Amino acid sequence: MTDLTILIAVIALALWPLAFLVLRIRHERKKRRDRLDRMTKEDLEDIGTEELVIAVLKKIGCQPETNEEGHIVFKYQGDDFYIAVEDEARFIMIWNPWWASISMDNPALPYLKEIVNLVNVDSLVTTVFTADEDEKNVGLHSKCHTVFTPKEGQLDEYLKAMLDHFFVTHDAIKQNLQQLGSAASESVNKERTKVKGFAAYKENSTPLSSVEEEKNKECFHSFRLL
Question: Rounded CA gap, 59 and 156, in Å?
């Protein structure tokens, strides 16, 4: 037996416990997913909301994790989302933080607020603002509060429909804003310190359009009153 063969044998023996642990974890996760897939509606009622949400997110292709604040964080269609759960009431709050941002100096900002208010009236998803005084910009965050229970039917289709509606809301706001006139994208500072809450997602925010000419304000004012 050569020295190389001995070395390979020693490394294999050293790595075997780790490999066994990884395989066991994967096996247990697969068993858990299979168990959830086989559950009836009555069975699903007996598990917690957080476990139910995580299982459904995995079923639609997401990779959910739980952050230090106890929220379920994941990406959907490239956007950041997190879900806060209420086990007792079977309610969940879905947040899509910092999906867009706009400079405080942008002349379109007052009209953007009007657009958001109009879209909120007819949308299942509500959009809110937060201001970052240090970086002189305003972030847009969308949210939806809904019941999440097996009684709603196919939960994977239900959750996908809810998440898709966030992008319908994005498009409605952007399309209305574009009617202010041709605009140039604003640059976003990528070197930001991540902190708890919405700001942790801010580096992924997409800048909204700006207005080049003051006369576009009058055009939008006429559009808004239609």
Answer: 7
Write the single-letter amino acid at 211. Answer: V
The answer to whether the beta carbons of residues 119 and 169 sit under 8 Å apart is yes
Residue 60 sits at φ, ψ, to 5 deg, of -95, 10
Cα-based angle 173, 129, 75 (whole degrees, multiple of 5): 75
Tell me: the pLDDT tens digits for 137-182? 999 999 999 989 877 678 999 999 999 999 999 999 998 888 765 4
Pairing between β-strand 65-66 and β-strand 79-86 as defined by DSSP bridges = unpaired
| Tokens matching residue 90 | 């079977």
Structure tokens at 47: 């598990």
Token pair for residue 171?
């498009």
Give the burial class of 7: count Cβ atoms within 10 A of its Cβ; 0-12 exposed, 13-18 middle, 19 or more buried: exposed
The pair of three-digit structure tokens given for residue 140, joined into one six-digit string: 């847009």
Q: What are residue 103's phi and psi, to 5 degrees?
A: -65, 145
pTM of the model: 0.65
Q: Which residue has the tokens 């910092």?
A: 98
Q: Locate 194 and state its tokens.
A: 């991540």
CB 111 within 8 A of CB 217: yes
Distance CA 193, CA 199 (A): 8
Distance CA(165)–CA(147), nearest Å, equals: 16
pLDDT tens sequence across 208-222:
654 444 434 443 333
